[in-house]
Specification:
It contains two helices and five strands; from the N terminus they run ββαβαββ. It is an alpha+beta fold. It has a single domain, classed as Tetrahydropterin Synthase, Chain A (2-Layer Sandwich), CATH 3.30.479.10. A hairpin with a 2-residue loop joins strand 4 and strand 5.
Length: 119
């Protein structure tokens, strides 16, 4: 099995509705996103997926989130914009066009949420 991973970032504000603490108030993060793609075999060039292509796909999704108040954009108008839900959203969007395996979303350097599907 082969894997490639890229790291990107975006800045956005959110509030976790009904959270019993400070996170219910409006606040922001400089989010870090890691995207891992996996394949059992390499393509004709010897790659899982071109890093440039994976970055393009990820950037297209993150452009929708960057410098936004997440609670006011889809799908987070109906879904709490937690790191877990953001990871799943990014995964779902990128997996339409690539063999993405996992998405990790860092709220801070020490707090990360992941989304992946079991094989």
């Amino acid at each position: 099995m082969f894997e490639v991973k890229i790291t990107r970032d975006f800045a956005a504000a959110h509030r976790v509705e009904d959270y019993p603490g400070n996170c219910e108030r409006l606040h922001g993060h400089n989010w870090k996103v890691e995207v891992v793609a996996r394949a059992p075999e390499l393509d004709g060039l010897g790659m899982v997926l071109d890093f440039r292509r994976l970055k393009e796909l990820t950037d297209r999704v993150l452009e929708h989130l960057d410098h936004q108040y997440l609670n006011e954009i889809e799908p987070f108008t109906a879904l709490n914009p937690t790191a877990e839900n953001i990871a799943k959203y990014i995964y779902d969007e990128i997996s339409k066009d690539s063999p993405v395996q996992r998405v990790n979303v860092f709220e801070t350097e020490t707090s990360v949420a992941s989304y992946f599907k079991e094989p």
